[in-house]
Amino acid sequence: MSLDPSKRGLIASLRGNFIAGLAVIAPGILTIWLVWNVVTWIDGLVLPLIPRGFHPQAVVGLDVPGVGVIVFVIFTLVMGYFTKGLIGRTLVNWGERIVEAMPIIRSIYNAVKQIADTILARTAPTFDRACLVQYPRPGIWAMAFISTTTRGEIGDRLSSEGDMVSIFLPTTPNPTSGFLLFVPRHDVIELDMTIEDAAKLVISAGLVYPDSRKLRARDDGDTPPLNDPLA
Q: What pairing do the DSSP bridges indicate for beta strands 164-170 and 178-184?
């Protein structure tokens, strides 16, 4: 038995309103959920290291979330200030020499340290710009990021191919894994979009595209019209 057209219209309207409302509240709910989980995770790591008499439950009679985060931030600031001095640098170097003597621990520590230095250091190298490259075969294009001009032994061995660039080709939707490719520069199409926009495109599996009209307006130094539906 088919539904009355008016009922079908009501159901379609309710479904559309629900989807529209979900699109509005989902980002906020997911953000709050993520922040809450990070806070509780840090609290769970830090609070057991604090004497029970200094816990919020013992001091104010309430379980206050975020105390572990505050303690962690203060501890990190103190460690950063301390390691800038001669004594702090000496102790850090001494500790790293001990770690270097431990075969398995040494590999883990060096890998984590290199990742942390790359992400957190202000002077760390970053991707130059986004690009398109034909992968895994000619005719199929993939999003990638140009890191540097290929140098060293690899650049010398591939010098007959012309100017080479080192690019990182991420996987979707997890851009932290991917492939390091050495590609002739003339086979790479450089893009005007920012690294952030390109990363959004990769993470969303092609669902979130930067607006090309905004890109052109930004390059021309103009702003899109206020009544532009794409603005």
A: antiparallel
Return the structure tokens found at 93.
């170097």
Angle at 134 between CA 171 and CA 139, to 5 degrees: 120
**Which amino acid, residue 17?**
N
- Domain total for the chain? 1
The greatest distance separating any two alpha carbons of the chain, rounded to the nearest whole angstrom, comes to 83
pLDDT digits (tens, 9 = 90+) for 28-66: 898 899 899 988 898 888 888 888 777 777 777 777 788
How far apart are alpha carbons 110 and 101 in whole angstroms? 12
Q: Are 131 and 151 in contact (CB under 8 A)?
A: no
Spatial separation of the C-alpha atoms in residues 161 and 151, rounded to whole Å: 13
List CB contacts of 56: < 8 A, sequence separation 6 or more: 62, 63, 64, 67
Domain holding 150, by residue range, is: 129-220
| CATH number for the domain harbouring residue 190 | 2.30.30
First vs last C-alpha separation in the chain: 46
Gap between the Cα atoms of 28 and 6, Å rounded = 34
> Against a cut of 0.70, is the pTM above it?
no
